């Protein structure tokens, strides 16, 4: 089995620096970090009394919710496509 090339990149999310290690491109990792940072800032602006841990959890909950809704929509579209083919 071949070793995948790992990328190590420092990113800033909500005022903290994190080192992300993975097989994705640097631009992809930066985009993900930027989107997480933006979502955390949005949640913080609406809920200024929350600490950063709670903001992080709400960001994760919102992100998983969005993921599940998109996954559900993809499954619906795949079913429609299969009906059209069959």
Automatic annotation (TrEMBL):
List, alphabetically, the InterPro entries matched: Bac_CellDiv_Activator, Cell_div_ZapA-like, Cell_div_ZapA-like_sf
**Compartment list:** Cytoplasm
- Keyword Cytoplasm set for record: yes
| Cellular component, GO annotation | cell division site; cell septum; cytosol
User: Which SUPFAM superfamilies does its entry note?
Assistant: Cell division protein ZapA-like
Alphabetical list of Pfam families matching this protein: ZapA
Q: Does the keyword Cell division apply?
A: yes
Example GO BP: FtsZ-dependent cytokinesis
Keywords (alphabetical) are: Cell cycle, Cell division, Cytoplasm, Septation
NCBIfam families, alphabetically?
PRK14126.1
Q: How does the annotation summarize its subunit structure?
A: Homodimer. Interacts with FtsZ.
Sum up the protein's function in the record's words.
Answer: Activator of cell division through the inhibition of FtsZ GTPase activity, therefore promoting FtsZ assembly into bundles of protofilaments necessary for the formation of the division Z ring. It is recruited early at mid-cell but it is not essential for cell division.
What is this protein identified as? Cell division protein ZapA
């Amino acid at each position: 089995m071949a070793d995948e090339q790992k990328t190590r990149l420092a990113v800033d999310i909500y005022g903290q620096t994190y080192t992300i290690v993975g097989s994705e491109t640097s631009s992809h990792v930066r985009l993900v970090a930027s989107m997480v940072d933006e979502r955390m800032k949005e949640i913080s602006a609406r809920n200024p009394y929350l600490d950063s841990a709670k903001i992080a959890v709400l960001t994760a909950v919102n992100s998983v919710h969005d993921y599940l809704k998109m996954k559900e929509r993809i499954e619906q579209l795949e079913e429609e496509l299969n009906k059209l083919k069959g």
